[in-house]
Design a protein that fits this description.
Layout: E1 2-3, E2 11-17, E3 34-38, E4 41-46, E5 50-54, H1 60-73, E6 75-76, E7 103-107, E8 117-121, E9 124-129, E10 132-138, E11 155-159, H2 164-179, E12 185-196, H3 202-212, E13 217-221, E14 224-228, E15 231-236, E16 239-250, H4 255-267, H5 269-286, E17 290-294, E18 300-303, E19 307-318, H6 324-331, E20 339-340, H7 342-353, E21 363-368, E22 373-377, E23 381-385, E24 388-397, H8 403-422
Parallel strand pairs: 2-6
Antiparallel strand pairs: 1-5, 2-10, 3-4, 3-13, 4-9, 5-8, 7-8, 7-21, 9-10, 11-12, 12-20, 12-24, 13-14, 14-23, 15-16, 15-22, 16-19, 17-19, 18-19, 21-22, 23-24
Helix pairs in contact: 1-6, 2-8, 3-8
This protein binds ligand ISJ.
EC number: 5.4.4.2
Protein name: isochorismate synthase
Keywords: Isomerase
């Protein structure tokens, strides 16, 4: 557990309304910011009031929540409600929009037993939501050397843990395990190494992702950066929402081909089965937490710039005061990134993928002081370190999966981060 040194305690938190900042990424003064943006709205942060590495283990989400409570106990929220962001009197109140006051951004590893899960409470958070914008500062403003964004320059690529043919072979083995009755679905991913000419500055990548994938959540948390279409859970008070994705096809070559591919995806027994596994896992995780849960019977199509997915939008009302992290703890890993049954699917992933997923396919997002927040599944992303990036993409594998088609799907998903790097 660590908090930034040199800060006077308790840390004064101030949230003030600001004029429309326009492009949130353009406001970022540093190369390694925190960000969560969709359709131009969201939160971006810089500086660190507190940061921790969450110890691995089954209790990691509970540990994270407690850490956050201890950080918040050390803050003075008295100024937060003033100046029009909440009711007069300045106390934390339900009238605040989510994301007002102190916010922690977080990334959790896919595998609970691996290190690398991180929570960061930025010193400055700029937010834009529903026609309002606000700036939260914690303690003294950070002493920053503002730097202009720098492009990564030329990029070269190399295989990650498995070459493309080795990965196809792993898919074939997973298909065999499914056909032999060991499990129903698993999800296999691969990694790709990228080396850039310059140290990788998150900002140009975030700008390109937010522009090209407006329906996705463009994120940056502790070096994990990407644009995921998959909302694990959003909590606003007792209301929760989740967008379950599984089942993928390419975009078409022209409008008619695009519609035909979408129709074929909706009609595909393999993809519908794959999708049902993911929806069932979400329903089973949420039902015990919810007084009300609405899961549509039929999926819809979600078209992104690179691929189209089967999508089910789930809504619910929490029965008690579970925070968004409690809900994340109950949901992760869904069968969209693990499989069915979960434990066997995770064994197969460990046996066949030959790599550590780190934050890929883990929960990524933010939580505020009331337990509201938004968490996605970290897909279409990469881990940035200096001038290197490790990119990830995976596919749901069923008994009738074709290894070559799954490889093509994984390549299409990798295009998101290749575009972020290369433009
Ligand atoms: C695993 C990934 O995506 C997941 C797998 C999908 C599929 O196989 O159809 C679709 C959406 C995601 O739930 C990924 O993008 O890496």
């Amino acid at each position: 557990m660590s908090v930034a040194i040199g800060l006077t305690r308790p840390l004064a938190v101030r949230t003030l309304p600001v004029g429309d900042p326009g492009d949130l990424v353009a406001a970022l003064p540093t190369a390694a910011p925190s960000a969560w943006i969709r359709r131009g709205e969201g939160l971006v942060g810089w500086g660190e009031a507190a940061r921790t590495e969450v110890p691995p283990g089954p209790g990691r989400f509970a540990w994270a929540r407690e850490w956050l409570s201890s950080v918040l106990a050390d803050t003075d929220l008295a100024d937060t409600g003033r100046a029009g962001m909440g009711p007069p009197g300045g106390k934390a109140d339900d009238a605040w929009p989510p994301g007002v006051g102190p916010v922690a951004f977080g990334s959790f590893t896919f595998d609970p037993d691996r290190p690398g899960s991180v929570l960061v409470v930025p010193k400055v958070v700029l937010a834009r939501r529903g026609g309002r914008a606000w700036l939260t500062t914690i303690g003294d403003p950070p002493e920053l050397e503002e730097s202009p964004p720098v492009e990564p320059g030329g990029i070269s690529y190399g295989d990650g843990s498995l070459t493309a043919p080795e990965w196809e072979h792993a898919v074939a083995r997973a298909v065999h395990a499914i056909r032999s009755g060991r499990l129903e679905k698993t999800v296999l991913a691969r990694d790709l190494m990228a080396v850039a000419e310059n140290p990788i500055d998150a900002r140009p990548l975030l700008s390109r992702l937010a522009d090209r994938y407006p329906d996705c959540y463009t994120f940056s948390v502790a070096g994990l950066l990407g644009a995921t279409p998959e909302l694990l859970v959003r909590r606003v008070g007792s209301e929760i929402e989740s967008l379950v994705l599984a089942g993928t096809t390419a975009r078409g070559d022209g409008a008619a081909d695009d519609v035909a591919r979408g129709a074929a995806l909706i009609a595909s027994a393999k993809d519908r089965h794959e999708h049902d596994c993911a929806v069932s896992s979400v329903r089973e995780a949420l039902a015990p937490l919810c007084a009300d849960l609405n899961v549509p019977d039929e999926p819809e199509l979600l078209a992104l710039a690179n691929v189209q997915h089967l999508a089910t939008f789930v809504t619910g009302k929490l029965a008690d005061g579970a925070s968004v992290l409690d809900v994340v703890a109950a949901m992760h890993p869904t069968a969209a990134v693990g499989g069915t049954p979960t434990a066997t699917a995770l064994d197969v992933i460990r046996e066949l993928e030959g790599m550590d997923r780190a934050g890929y396919a883990g929960p990524v997002g933010w939580i505020d002081s009331r337990g509201d927040g938004e968490w996605g599944i970290a897909l279409r992303c990469g881990i940035i370190e200096g001038n290197k990036a490790r990119l990830f993409a995976g596919c749901g594998i069923m008994g009738d999966s074709d290894p070559a088609a799954e490889l093509a799907e994984a390549q299409a998903k990798l295009r998101v981060m290749r575009y972020a790097l290369e433009g």
